[in-house]
Amino acid sequence: MAWVYLFFAGLLECGWVIGLKYTQGFTKLQPSVLTVLAMIASFWLLAEAMKDIPVGTAYAVWAGIGAVGVAIIGMTILGEQKDLARVACLLLIVAGIVGLKLVGTTANH
């Protein structure tokens, strides 16, 4: 279950990072509230995942999901630059996430 929590924590990270763009420095109420709620939920799920996944692995996977997700949203929805080098770099991040998942699934308590 920890990996499911971590996956959704990463998706919520994408949501709050993109949400920051629309808060306009936290001057817009609705996007600000939604962004803060996504932050809280993301951190809570990350903390739950860290009960069973080593902190280094959990944080790296969480940040990787967020980085890749936000970059993909930027390229596909927000009109950011798309090129082969950028996609190749994202694939390297994905490879790192998969590698971390494969090499460690439980924390050393």
Describe this structure in words.
The chain has 109 residues and is mainly alpha-helical. It has one domain (2-103). It is built from four helices and no strands. It is flat, with a radius of gyration of 15 Å. 23% of the residues are buried.
Summarize the structure.
It is built from four helices and no strands. It has helices at 2-23, 29-49, 55-76, 84-103.
Highlighted features:
4 helices; single chain; mainly alpha; Small_multidrug_res; flat; 109 residues
Distance between the termini: 18 Å
Low-confidence stretches: none
> How many domains is the backbone divided into?
1
Specify the overall morphology.
flat
Q: What share of residues are in beta strands? A: under 5%
Number of strands: 0
Q: How large, in whole angstroms, is the Cα Rg?
A: 15 Å
Structural class: mainly alpha
Approximate helicity band: over 70%
The description of the largest β-sheet is: none
Order of helices and strands: HHHH
Mean pLDDT: 92
Tally of contiguous helical segments: 4
